[in-house]
Structures are given as C-alpha cells and as structure tokens.
Amino acid sequence: MSARHETRNLMQQLGARGISLSFDEANTLRRAEKTLHRWAELECGDSGPYASWSIERDGQTGKPYWCVYPHTGEARRSPIADREAGALKRIKAICDAHGIHFYHQTDPRGCALYVSAEPIKDYDYSRGVACCA
Q1: Given this model, what pLDDT does residue 123 score?
Q2: Using CB atoms within 10 A of its CB, is residue 72 exposed (0-12), middle (13-18) or buried (19+)?
Q3: Model's pTM, two decimal places?
Q4: Per-residue CA distances from 122 to 6, 45, 128 (Å)
Q5: 129 vs 93: CA distance, rounded Å
Q6: Which of 65, 67, 70, 84 lies 20 to 30 Å from 52, alpha-carbon distance?
Q7: Residue 77 CA, distance from chain mean position
Q8: Strands 76-79 and 64-70
C-alpha cells in the first residue's frame, strides 16, 4: 500500500470519528507515528554477535544518546537528534489547532499514536484512532 493510500485511509478513519484534517495534516500524523514507533524500537535496543545498542536519555539533561555496548571492550555513547521530541511537537501543533487530543503509546509492539476528539486516558487509549497503517 502506498503512503498516499495510507494517509487517505487515516483521513477516512478520522472523519468517521468527526475529526476533519487536511491531507497534509493527516500525513504529518501518520509520519510522526512512524518516527515515534521506530524511536520506541530503538529505545528497547537490539544486539548482534559483537555488541548491544539502544537509545538512552541522560538522567540529568534528558538528552538522547546512541549507546553501544560491545560484548568486549568499552561502551560508547554519542549524542543524537531528539526525533521523538520533534514528532511530538508536530503532533501537538496539529491537535491544538483542531482541539483534538492525542496519546503517545511507547511500547513498540503496537501503534505509537492515537488521536481522539475526546481526552484519552492512558488505560483506554485504544478508543482513539490509531494513526498507523
């Protein structure tokens, strides 16, 4: 399925819940969801035969770092762009402009972004529209 088709599907799902967004706004939400989903996967980390790696936030500053933990040798930590914050900022701007609410679900096993005309509770977020394909 093409990205354009996925955005049109999202627009239909939102419209069925009384949320009217432009194609560009719906596309921004869909793309931001993909960014948040990938970020959550990287926060969980992964490993290979020689090292493990993940995104970690500094406890003091909150800045994200790409951390690599070789199975032998010294760990490395490099600063990276905070794509999660950027995606959430774009989502918030759209939701604020339309008076709608969003929920950022951080478990990479599911959709990362839900929106609704009503406030979304963390224990009931799936009542919102999932902004993933």
Answers
A1: 83
A2: exposed
A3: 0.92
A4: 25, 24, 11
A5: 17
A6: 84
A7: 23
A8: antiparallel
| Tally: H helices and E strands in the chain | 3, 7
Judged on CB neighbours under 10 Å (0-12, 13-18, 19+), 12 is exposed
Residue 6: the pLDDT is 96
Per-residue pLDDT reduced to its tens digit, 64-90: 999 999 999 999 999 999 999 999 999
Integer Cα distance of 16 and 8 in angstroms: 12
What's the rounded Cα separation, in Å, for the pair 44 and 109? 11
Amino acid at 104: H
Sheet of strand 113-116: strand arrangement: 101-104, 113-116, 129-130
> Which residue ranges in the chain fall short of pLDDT 50?
none
Q: What is the C-alpha to C-alpha distance for residues 108 and 42, in angstroms, rounded to an integer? A: 9
The two three-digit tokens of residue 86, written as one number = 């950027």
Residues forming beta bridges with residue 115, ordered by sequence position: 102, 129
Give the Å distances, CA to CA, from 57 to 19, 54, 61, 83.
Answer: 34, 10, 8, 12
